[in-house]
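Researcher: First entry.
Model:
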Amino acid sequence: MSAKGLRLLLAPLLVLASPALAAPEFTGGPEFASDTGHVLLSWESDEPVRLIIADNAEFSGAKPLYEGSQTSFFVSGLSNGEYYLRLDGVQGESSQPAKLNVVHQSLTQAIWLTIIGLIITVGIIATIARGARDD
């Protein structure tokens, strides 16, 4: 029997012997939250994946964020809102959709924290200056 004939004979056995790939899956749960507009997503997959994001659960108008073999991706620059993420494997398997809720900290809180930081900084500088004068 020729090598070509042997390959044709064994090809169906190789297909049957190859393990089925599991669907990609997000680690850390199906829901994520961010108060800064960025998040590190991680997942488990037996194959390269394509990470897509949409602003609706039907994934209409979805945009690809990443495609490759890595198992994590840092998403940043998101404004307030709900986002839906999905991993699509190259063999056609898809993960369960994950939901990302982004709610930035309020501007009032940021201003108050800045003022408190400024007061502490001025106090430290004044203490150092007074201590240096006494020497």
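Researcher: Second entry.
Model:
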Amino acid sequence: MIKRGITARKIVIHVNSLDSGPALYNYVVMQLSGYRQPPPSSLDATFAALADPTRRAILARLAQGEASVNQLAEPFDISQPAISKHLKVLERAGLISRGRDAQRRLSRLEPQPLAEANQFLEQYREFWQTSFARLDTLLEEIQCSTPNPSPSRRRRSAKS
């Protein structure tokens, strides 16, 4: 449960940190119009984790099956502690889980956050497909209504 005092304080701090002028005006208008910034979600963490190419490569490797830190570090020219930091970011985002198998600590891919990201992006894919379909229809209408220039157009000869 969010306490009222904390929320109000955060808003006051946020407003006070804005420069006066257009930024403050835009903030107030957006708040009064009902446009509120959505609360941080797992999508934010998922996309932040996927922003790094090393972490994407680690996920691609884990899609093949569980792996230890040493196995994940092999193809990269970075240290094992650096790989461990990448794994912590992926784990905090919920993209992987880590467990112990005897003395090894294996990492495995967790599909749920990727499915949520895919569902989020699917909405935009549908939007763009619909937009492109409307554009195709419009272009066809324009092509059908525009008369084609006749290929046998006469040129006027210059009289001397």
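Model: Note on the second entry: The CA atoms of residues 45 and 93 lie 5 Å apart.
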